[in-house]
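Figure 3 (text version): structure tokens given as input.
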């Protein structure tokens, strides 16, 4: 879920920038420091959008810059448990598919894609069913539900989000459309 939140953080303004400490400078420094960072409370910082207040600044011993506390607005992405998300498959591996959901990737384990057995084709980066001839490959659009979440603030790339598509209304968008058309054909709607 994307949210706009008001945050406070401290930035170091390097000596060569001290002559002109402006909201634009502080915003750029905050962007460099925070964007892409994962935080357990607010999620992933997508963008710093507006600086509201810049404190007086503090000097620390043996440090060349001046430290300013700033209050600012940021757009964050915080995946919520049981949230339904749309995303695109970014990688297919033997044990499942990684799906890009916002600024993070979630794992759609092979056991959570379909009730059918899905064989892995490493050459084409595809998971395919022999029963229904359905295939899941890179760039396919999918709808899934977040079922597990483990955020690693120190190393955001190690954060893990588990997905499922084994519920009604979830799965590859093309499969959902096929199912809808089949229901319409059998019910006459």
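Below: residues designed for each position.
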């Amino acid at each position: 879920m994307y949210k706009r939140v008001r945050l406070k953080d401290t930035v170091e303004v390097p000596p060569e920038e001290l002559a002109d400490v402006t909201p634009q400078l502080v915003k750029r420094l905050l962007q460099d420091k925070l964007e892409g960072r994962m935080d357990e409370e607010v999620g992933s910082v997508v963008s710093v959008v507006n600086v509201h207040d810049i404190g007086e600044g503090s000097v620390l011993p043996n440090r060349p810059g001046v430290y300013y506390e700033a209050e600012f607005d940021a757009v964050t992405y915080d995946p919520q448990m049981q949230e339904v998300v749309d995303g695109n498959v970014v990688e297919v591996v033997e044990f499942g598919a990684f799906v890009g959901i916002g600024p993070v990737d979630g794992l759609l384990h092979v056991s959570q894609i379909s009730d059918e057995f899905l064989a892995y084709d490493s050459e084409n980066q595809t998971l395919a069913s022999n029963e229904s001839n359905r295939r899941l490959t890179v760039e396919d659009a999918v709808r899934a539900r977040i079922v597990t979440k483990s955020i690693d603030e120190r190393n955001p790339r190690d954060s893990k989000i588990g997905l499922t598509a084994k519920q009604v209304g979830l799965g590859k968008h093309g499969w959902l459309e096929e199912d809808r058309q089949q229901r319409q054909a059998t019910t006459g709607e």
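The first strand starts at residue 2 and ends at 13.
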